[in-house]
Amino acid sequence: MAEAKGTVHFNRFIDVSEEPGKLLQPIEGYQSLELVSLEEAIEPIVKFCPDVRRRAYIAKGNCDPPKDGLTQDESASIFLYTMEWAPRDQCLYVVLNSILRSKNRNRLITPWLLFMKLLLTALFNLRSCGMTVWRGVRLDLRKEYVVGKTYTWWGFSSCTESLHVLESESFLGQEEKRTMFSIECFNGKKIRPHSSLEEEDEILLLPGSQFIVKSHLQPSKKDPDLIIIHLQQVVPPFVLLEEPSISKKDNLPDLDKQTKVKLTITSTEPKPQHLKSDSKLSTKPIPTPVDEEKKYQIKSGKEAKSDIQV
To answer: From start to end residue, where is composition biased (Basic and acidic residues) (predicted)?
Structure first.
């Protein structure tokens, strides 16, 4: 794939062509691991990203105090993911996404599991947003994305809400062959408060996100090299990205040992007899990804046709 013009940090917004275009094994292995500090999480990956300790120090220093209710380590894991440094092939997000997209992922991912646990915990703790986002590539990908078919993106997918940002020379520009993806998503993660590049207003889609191709559009006869592919996020029939489980130890606040023991004991006490089944305790079900998708479709269905007009 051709390198983007301008600064190198924009590459992850236009790396769609690096997706394998096939179903791979589910992303898993980190769920039951202990949630550790950023410093501990990166130790196993130093041999792949030799400068990662120094970058993690910078990331953590920029996440004090953390935002959105995350811990400093969780926020810093997102900040570190968005950082770019030379050489590019030793940059954390480049190596990680390359592994996530590899058919040999299960053999390669073991050193990354602690960092994946921390990063995914941070992202799952951020509110999921339904919106139309954009990303692209300097290629014509109509043949690779057939209308009516479903495709899975295995890497973390960097997107933007602004079509004008994507059209800038730093991204796709306005010349030569290029494909823009207009994506109706239901679980976009707004990472701007935790990003090293706040000005880009980045929306991150999680690995294992699945999309159906709704249409191809050539919006302007004056610019025949521009293609827009409209994607709609769908819920896979099976889980492709395991949610990081949080142990009781991870959930407890940073209290002394005796207090933690008391809290743990209290949380496992049987329900008192006087709490009847018809009490006023909330029984509101926790929303599932399917619920989120339905809610977003109801809300934005009438707008779907206008989302991709430029």
So the answer is: 271-281, 291-310
